[in-house]
TrEMBL record:
Pfam families: NUDIX (PF00293). This is NUDIX domain-containing protein. It comes from Luteococcus sanguinis. Residues 42-107 form the Nudix hydrolase domain. InterPro entries: NUDIX_hydrolase-like_dom_sf, NUDIX_hydrolase_dom. Transmembrane segments: none annotated.
């Protein structure tokens, strides 16, 4: 993770909009890959999205973030719900209120070698994560966000 990303001010509650972007089969969804941290030595996955800006709705935010980070648009955009994410990153307490959306990315990330670019210029890998993760998969943040999607789609 870049030095700029490590210097994020976590002293306040942040408002985010993030996307669960399933593949057409509904078996996996696109996530960014973050490197090792004190709490997650093997790294972790994070939903695509970011901070809501002053005067911006959370819907406008997720559309903007996907365009900026992936140069993509979202088809069939639907709001799923809100997740409160209280976490530690490099020992520092963080707190987010996350508006979770779902929709299909157009174009979808490649099966291998896909990346996204954050506002500070940091390039992160993007991978397809199976729903439910699996035993040997790194954690997904925000925690419990995937539950909103699977609750909407029984049998997954």
């Amino acid at each position: 993770m870049s030095e700029a990303a490590r210097e994020v001010n976590r002293s306040r509650i942040r408002v985010k909009a993030m996307l669960i972007a399933p593949n057409p089969e509904g078996t996996a969804h696109a996530v960014s890959v973050s490197g090792p941290s004190l709490e997650n030595p093997e790294g972790f996955h994070r939903l695509i999205g970011g901070s809501v800006e002053l005067g911006e709705t959370h819907r406008e935010c997720i559309i903007r973030e996907v365009d900026e980070e992936l140069c993509a648009r979202i088809d069939d955009l639907r709001f799923l719900g809100v997740v409160e994410n209280i976490f530690r990153y490099e020992g520092e307490l963080g707190h987010e209120i996350v508006f979770v959306w779902t929709g299909l990315l157009d174009p979808p990330p490649a099966l291998e070698g896909a990346t996204m670019t954050e506002i500070d210029g940091t390039v992160l890998p993007v991978v397809w994560r199976r729903f439910g993760g699996g035993e040997d998969v790194v954690p997904l943040y925000p925690a419990r966000a995937e539950d909103l999607f699977t609750a909407e789609a029984p049998g997954r």
